[in-house]
Design a protein that fits this description.
The complex is a heterodimer of chains A (about 260) and B (about 550).
Chain A (H helix, E strand, L loop, with lengths): L2 H7 L5 E12 L2 E12 L3 E5 L6 H8 L7 E6 L2 E2 L4 H6 L1 E4 L11 H11 L6 H11 L15 H13 L5 E5 L7 H16 L3 E5 L3 H7 L2 E6 L2 E6 L1 H7 L8 H11 L10
Parallel strand pairs in A: 3-8, 3-9, 6-7, 7-8
Antiparallel strand pairs in A: 1-2, 1-4, 4-5, 9-10
Helix pairs in contact in A: 9-10
Chain B lengths: L1 H20 L1 H26 L1 H7 L5 H29 L6 H7 L6 H33 L4 H28 L4 H33 L2 H9 L2 H6 L1 H11 L9 H21 L5 H19 L3 H10 L18 H16 L2 H19 L3 H5 L3 H22 L2 H4 L6 H30 L5 H28 L10 H27 L4 H29 L7
Classes of the chains: A alpha/beta (about 260), B mainly alpha (about 550).
């Protein structure tokens, strides 16, 4: 399918990723309470919420790292609970503080990810391009051990883009990255969107979410408190169109702040 | 499995290359290899020269073999019990953080990831078995063991450890998503283990109290129907290890076959389980990663803090000491407050241990000469404290950014640290001395006084000089790197002890009075401590926390 055809055929109402009634208890603590969300084809969705809102739990549930207490996760029409490996093949995940294999070189690390996702055929060209964009090419033969925190974050981003995932999940991707790296990441996300890739980003950086995301989902105390475009959120928060996402976010999360997470009776 | 094979091959090759390029890792590796190599060379030379071998052969009487069997059985039982107990407390499905971040979300079969983890465990056990085997080789050859039976022993040990690991993994996986189920299962298994071990201990103790025969008591505990029935796999493994020597009749193939069935069966059962073990292993893996990182740097204080972190009581401040002092003295307060909080009520155990040990010695030891010399035990125990003190100083160096910013001279900072550690040690030594005096009337009073003064004065100089070893190698990033500073510390402490030992021996031989011996000991060690502190303080002043090791 050509880029133009992809652009034309894209329809956000056809979700690539669907989360239905996701609930997660950690022992007796309710971390996520009946959350449903979807990310359309070529759509960038921001997942916002205060600390402990359940953003990471949602992302980890989607990647199959943690098992939902209740609910379903569907990617490209496949259920995670039934076709786990096929679903995982279509996903890429960048954790908040990545811990790459320190005893691999940068190139070996990316190659291992390409092998794990069975995309070695496109590896060479793609890897070189990504390493150059994130200024890791000169370090390709260095051990990860020698990389700084920001460089490790960039490596995790490179690993996410190397295997042509259909949906990319980012957990606070901009923390610890220098301004040039941050700009590069934003450009990459927009390019991925243009290629029909769906993106779900959990972030605290509201201005980034405001400019990058097509739609915003706000979580608070494990519950989804609002969802929509910036304009829809402004309306929901009873604010004018001049209000920023930060204003809308603070109003909406404070409205729901009183509802504490309930333990299992 | 191909990506996992690639991953582990590259990790191994790069680790070897990294070790070869890092002198601090290479030197201990060479020392270990040389140590193991000499054992292999000795065994090979003996094997190539049958005459020399025959002339060196040692005949072990059947009664002694019986004791060796019992000791081996008890060691294996302790290892197995520890493995099971730790598994049920912490969970053995521990993955490294990179596995969690990059393997768990990848489209790789969970069974493959589990197999990789198990192969890692088996590999570690194989390394232990080979390591112990290399050093046991000389002893085995001296008692006329054949190579094939040594092989059976090694395979038997490996199969036993694999079975225990598989079984405990299985228990953890089965109970992954049932908190109540896990608690009940863990309690039942733990209780059964404690019951069996207690029964064996009580049997041995009863026999010893009745007969006073330590070796016989060991045999009674190990060789009874209860132990042979409930701990059958351990009995088979012990037969393979000890029975491989001449004079013991057993069927190694039958025992190996049973152990192989258990190991293979438990592995099969584990791999058949459908549970998603990723989530249950997340929290424990993250916690263990923090603990391992602290252990690798020799920072035992952080290890204790990490172990305490998840406990309910960690949320409260616990024991506290009111603040006192200014300048360097405030550092002593900080050290004591941290120690108090870190150790909590286990400090009480430290105080109760000496009287309990003294009471046990009084009841169980019937040899008057041994009881007379018992005060020297204080010196041995204090020796252990000296090496623990290094770990405290390493913990302190983790906060160098804060401490170096305080306007206090390096000498005083090290002095405050050493004094805090010495104070803790002194309390223990004093309690031990009082306990011995009170509970063991046979203990020689003069020996007790010399042991107490000796331990208090020698320890201050030893701790000061061991601080030099820490300051010479402040940035240790893994356990291999800790070997060289440990060795340097051993040499420095040994050199520090020498003058005191020489003085005690010489003055006792000359019939000097207790008071003059004590005064000399104190003066010499204060001088040595001052020198050690001065050097360690100067090294601290020069220490750059931003430098890479």
């Amino acid at each position: 399918m050509s880029d133009m055809t992809r652009q034309l055929s894209r329809d956000w109402s056809l979700p690539v990723l669907t989360v239905r009634n996701l609930t997660k208890y950690y022992k007796t603590t309710l971390a996520v309470d009946n959350v449903s969300l979807s990310v359309g084809d070529g759509e960038i969705v921001g997942l916002l919420g205060p600390n402990g809102a359940g953003k990471t739990t949602v992302l980890r549930s989607i990647t199959g790292i943690i098992q939902p207490t209740a609910g379903e996760i569907e990617v490209d029409g496949m259920l995670l609970s039934k076709q786990e490996r096929d679903v995982k093949r279509r996903l890429a995940f960048v954790p908040e503080v990545p811990n790459p294999y320190e005893m691999l070189t940068v190139m070996e690390h990316v190659r291992f990810i390409a092998m794990a996702y069975d995309t070695l055929s496109t590896f060479d060209a793609k890897c070189t391009e990504l390493l150059r964009r994130f200024e890791l090419y000169d370090k390709r033969n260095d051990l990860v051990l020698s990389l700084s925190k920001g460089m490790r974050q960039k490596l995790a981003i490179v690993c996410a883009f190397v295997h042509n995932a259909r949906t990319i999940l980012f957990d606070e991707p901009l923390i610890g990255i220098d301004p040039k790296g941050a700009r590069e990441l934003k450009d990459m996300v927009l390019e991925a969107k243009a290629d029909g890739c769906s993106v779900l980003i959990s972030t605290h950086m509201l201005d980034t979410a405001e400019h990058l995301c097509d739609r915003i989902i706000i979580l608070s105390h494990g519950r989804m408190v609002a969802e929509g475009t910036l304009h829809e959120l402004q309306e929901r928060a009873s604010m004018g169109s001049g209000a920023s996402l930060e204003d809308a976010f603070l109003t909406l999360t404070e409205e729901h702040g009183a509802g504490e997470t309930a333990p299992i009776p | 499995m191909r990506p996992l094979a690639y991953l582990h091959l590259r990790l191994f090759v790069n680790s070897v290359k990294h070790t070869l390029r890092t002198p601090r890792r290479l030197v201990p590796m060479v020392l270990l290899a040389a140590w193991a190599g000499q054992s292999v060379i000795f065994s090979t030379v003996m094997a190539l020269d049958p005459e020399a071998w025959q002339s060196m052969k040692v005949h072990i009487p059947a009664a002694r073999m019986d004791q060796i069997w019992s000791a081996c059985f008890i060691s294996l039982t302790a290892t197995v019990v520890t493995l099971v107990y730790n598994s049920l407390r912490d969970g053995l499905l521990i993955f490294a953080p990179p596995h969690i971040d990059f393997l768990f979300p990848a489209p790789i079969k969970r069974r493959s990831v589990l197999l990789m983890k198990l192969f890692g465990d088996y590999g570690r056990y194989a390394a232990y078995v080979i390591f112990v085997g290399v050093f046991a080789l000389q002893g085995y050859m001296l008692i006329g063991m054949h190579a094939s039976t040594a092989f059976y022993a090694a395979v038997g040990a490996l199969l036993l450890l694999s079975f225990v690991t598989n079984a405990t993994h299985l228990l953890n996986v089965v109970t992954s998503y049932g908190v109540a189920r896990l608690k009940i299962t863990a309690r039942v298994v733990k209780f059964s283990l404690v019951l069996v071990v207690s029964l064996l201990f009580v049997t041995a103790l009863g026999h010893y109290v009745a007969t006073g025969d330590a070796a016989g008591s060991l045999a009674v505990a190990a060789q009874n129907a209860l132990a042979e029935f409930l701990l059958a796999p351990i009995v088979w493994c012990t037969n393979l290890i000890v029975g491989s020597t001449p004079g013991m009749v057993h069927n190694p193939m039958r025992e190996l076959a049973w152990l192989a069935i258990l190991a293979g069966g438990s592995l099969f059962a584990l791999l058949r389980r459908p549970e998603n073990f990723y989530e249950p292993s997340l929290a424990i893996s993250a916690r263990m990663a923090r603990i391992r990182a602290a252990m690798n740097t020799g920072d035992w204080s952080s290890v204790a803090i990490e172990k305490r972190r998840d406990m309910e009581k960690a949320r409260s401040a616990g024991l506290s000491i009111p603040p006192f002092g200014r300048g360097a003295v405030s550092l002593v307060w900080k050290y004591m407050a941290v120690q108090c909080r870190r150790m909590g009520w286990s400090m009480l155990a430290l105080v109760l241990l000496p009287p309990i040990t003294a009471l046990a010695a009084r009841s169980l030891v019937h040899d008057a000469e041994v009881l007379k010399q018992s005060p020297y035990a204080i010196l041995y125990v204090v020796w252990g404290f000296i090496f623990a003190a290094q770990a405290d100083l390493r913990s302190e160096l983790r906060q160098t950014d804060v401490i170096k910013a305080i306007p206090i001279r390096g000498f005083k900072i090290i002095l405050a640290q050493v004094f805090g550690q010495w104070l803790q040690l002194s309390v223990f030594a004093l309690v031990a001395a009082v306990s011995i005096r009170w509970m063991i009337p046979e203990a020689d009073g003069e020996t007790l006084a010399i042991a107490l003064v000796g331990s208090l004065s020698i320890s201050i100089s030893c701790i000061s000089w061991s601080a030099i070893a820490v300051m010479l190698y402040p940035d240790c990033r893994d356990r291999l790197q800790l070997i060289v500073p440990g060795f340097v510390s051993l040499v420095l402490v040994g050199l520090t002890v020498l003058p005191s030992v020489a003085i005690i021996v010489r003055m006792l031989a000359l019939g000097e009075r207790l008071l003059s011996i004590s005064v000399t000991l104190v003066l010499i060690n204060i001088l040595l401590a001052w020198m050690g502190l001065w050097i360690a303080g100067a090294l601290f002043e020069r220490y750059d926390p931003t430098a890479q090791s």
